[in-house]
Amino acid sequence: MTRYEPANSLETPRFSGVRTFMRLPNNRDLPNAAAAIVGAPFDTGASFRAGARFGPESIRSASHLLRPYNPSQDVSIFEHLSVIDYGDVTVVPGFIEESYAEIEKGLAEIHQASVVPIVLGGDHSIALPELRAAAETHGPLALVQFDSHADTWDAYFGKKYNHGTVFKRAVEEGLLRPEHSIQVGMRGSLYDAGDLEESRRLGLELLTTDDVRGIGVPATIERIRDRVGDAKLYVSFDVDFVDPAYAPGTGTPEIGGFTSREAQVFVRGLRGLDIVGCDVVEVYPQYDGPGQVTSLMAANIAYELLTLVAVRRSGA
Ligand code: MN
Ligand code: MN
Q: Which of 14, 147, 188, 306 could form a disulfide with 238 if both were Cys (CB 3.0 to 4.6 A apart)?
């Protein structure tokens, strides 16, 4: 059995070669993989700015500094996990339902092969076909969503499918186990006083940024872990969870958010949970700041998620 791991940057320089995630091999050998990095370069679901179609390539490029041993979890990822960069799923720019069908088809094959996808967006609308594909194999899932928006609005411009409505659709389609799902980090202006109530009406738990600041980060992590329990879990990380000072390259930035350090701590706090799929979405490189800080943060969050999959496989 082949075990796929990144090229060794002690042997060849990390700026050389083709820019896959972490310098992983680019192939679709799912039988020999346990996790796969998958790009979903789709941004037709965005309600404001455009440009998340360039998210995957930008995150991959920023990932080349990442090293295989993660000291925060004391794990050498690729000793436990064969990982490929699957490349990108097919999308049809401008056509959301056609893209949904393609994204779902691509990811369904990955789940059926018992491979955990780590999806690089793309705007957040891609979460719906991701969850459709995951639920097809695993049944309804727990969701942990880090985001400054709940994305449970009903429609934009009279249309049901876009990056602001995905989790309402996901509950309606029976893809989630709301009683095990939690949304964390909501803040910023709304259309109506009742907007966030919609999540609770759908059965999801919701903690605003103010709630998190009230109880603190460690207590929030405990709330998340209690909520998810042993359920199969999908983790969705919208980079606007993080303050625009750290993550300006996104579609709908909201000030007053978390630091990139806190984002790492939240994701690391999911250690041991049964993650069957995850994503990092809403990176718009055109709006990024000096040093491509948003892509760098997103690459590091994907790395922490990959680490969690390795920890779970290692049985530690
Ligand atoms: Mn979102
Ligand atoms: Mn958001």
A: 147
Query: Ligand nearest 247 Cα, by number?
Result: 2
Is pTM beyond 0.85? Reply is yes
Instruction: Give residue limits of the domains in the chain.
Output: 21-314
- For the domain made up of 21-314, give the CATH fold: Arginase; Chain A (3.40.800)
For residue range 68-81, what is the model confidence (pLDDT) as tens digits? 999 999 999 999 99
Token code pair at residue 188: 């910023």
What backbone phi and psi angles, to 5 degrees, belong to 119?
-90, 135
User: Which residues does residue 46 pair with via DSSP β-bridges, in sequence order?
Assistant: none
Neighbours of ion ligand 2 (CB under 5 A): 147-149, 238, 240
Q: How far does the centroid of ligand 1 lie from the alpha carbon of residue 289, in Å? A: 20
Q: Give 27 Cα–ligand 2 centroid separation in angstroms.
A: 31
Q: Kind and range of the H or E element at 261? A: helix 260-268
pLDDT tens for 144-160 read 999 999 999 999 999 99
